[in-house]
Specification:
By secondary structure, this protein is mainly α. It has helices at 2-22, 29-49, 55-78, 84-104. It starts with a helix and ends with a helix. Helix 1 runs antiparallel to helix 2 (29-49), helix 1 packs parallel to helix 3 (55-78) and helix 3 packs antiparallel against helix 4. It has one domain.
């Protein structure tokens, strides 16, 4: 269950990053509110995950999910353009996240 909490926390990391962009510097109040809610939920689920998971595993996985998820959202929703080499490094991030889970023994 701890890893599920961690994945949920990472997904909310993507939510708050996306809604922060959509808030246009917190000038659009509805998206600013969603950002704060996303931040809270991300931290809440991260806190649940680190009750049992080591911080040295949970934190990099959490940030990795947020990073990869935000890249994907940026490309799909905002039309961000990434070079093929950048995609290689995104894949390496994803491989690192999966590797941490596989080798953690949790």
């Amino acid at each position: 269950m701890d890893w599920i909490y961690l994945v949920i926390a990472g997904l909310f990391e993507v939510v708050w990053a996306t809604t922060m962009k959509l808030s246009h510097g917190f000038t659009k109040i509805n998206f600013a509110i969603y950002t704060v809610i996303g931040l809270f939920l991300s931290m809440f689920f991260l806190a649940l995950a680190v009750k049992k998971l080591p911080m040295s595993l949970a934190y990099p996985v959490w940030t990795g999910i947020g990073a990869v998820g935000s890249i994907i959202v940026g490309v799909i929703l905002f039309g961000d353009k990434l070079s093929p080499l950048t995609w290689v490094f995104v894949a390496l991030l994803l491989i690192g996240i999966i590797g941490i889970k596989i080798t953690s023994g949790s």
